[in-house]
């Protein structure tokens, strides 16, 4: 969990610059295309470990490390995003009773991680000035990104790591 959270914190540092570049090229819709990458680490940890509380620990560590590594969006965004992700992930897998780990469950979880943080970000970053049409398109793009870049990518990465034999001690 700590290793995935640390790798994500470093990746997020660099992703935030890519995000700003996308914003200058295509605004809020373009930046929404990579949102799923920010969430992979916690979902991947859950997919590997498959125990209650995995999201709380992994996203908590990730948010804390991001505060130290730095982000172009501020410390509050790291903390609030981590809280949103951990709450939703824990609820989703509790709803599945920690027994659903197929691609559809992971893609549902990846998409479900998006709306709560998006709602917080709308007010935290002033997205309300975009208008409802742009907000709707941005949310749709973020849901798609969360479903594919978080959910599907988690399944593909987890299965690829499992094939290496590194995860023999885990439930995956």
Q: Give the number of DSSP strands.
A: 0
Largest sheet: none
Mean pLDDT: 93
Helix and strand composition category: mainly alpha
Q: Determine the fraction of residues in helical runs and give it as a percent range.
A: over 70%
What does this structure look like?
With 172 residues, this protein is mostly helical. The protein has one domain. The chain has 7 helices and no strands. The longest helix is centred in the last third of the chain and has 32 residues, at 132-163. The protein starts with a helix and ends in a 9-residue tail after the last helix.
In a few lines, what is going on in this structure?
The chain has 172 residues and is mainly alpha-helical.
Keywords:
about 170 residues, mainly alpha, globular
Topology:
Blueprint: H1 2-32, H2 40-49, H3 54-69, H4 75-95, H5 103-112, H6 114-124, H7 132-163
């Amino acid at each position: 969990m700590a290793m995935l959270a640390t790798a994500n914190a470093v990746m997020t540092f660099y992703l935030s610059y890519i995000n700003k570049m996308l914003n200058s090229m295509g605004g809020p819709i373009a930046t929404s295309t990579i949102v799923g990458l920010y969430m992979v680490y916690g979902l991947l940890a859950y997919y590997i470990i498959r125990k209650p509380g995995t999201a709380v620990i992994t996203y908590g560590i990730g948010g804390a490390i991001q505060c130290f590594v730095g982000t172009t969006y501020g410390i509050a965004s790291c903390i609030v995003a981590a809280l949103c992700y951990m709450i939703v992930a824990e609820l989703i897998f509790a709803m599945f009773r920690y027994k659903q780990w197929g691609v559809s469950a992971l893609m549902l979880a990846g998409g479900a991680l998006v709306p709560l943080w998006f709602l917080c970000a709308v007010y935290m970053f002033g997205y309300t000035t975009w208008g409802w049409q742009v907000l709707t398109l941005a949310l749709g793009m973020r849901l798609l990104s969360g479903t594919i870049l978080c959910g599907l990518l988690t399944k593909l990465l987890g299965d690829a790591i499992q094939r290496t034999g590194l995860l023999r001690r885990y439930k995956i």
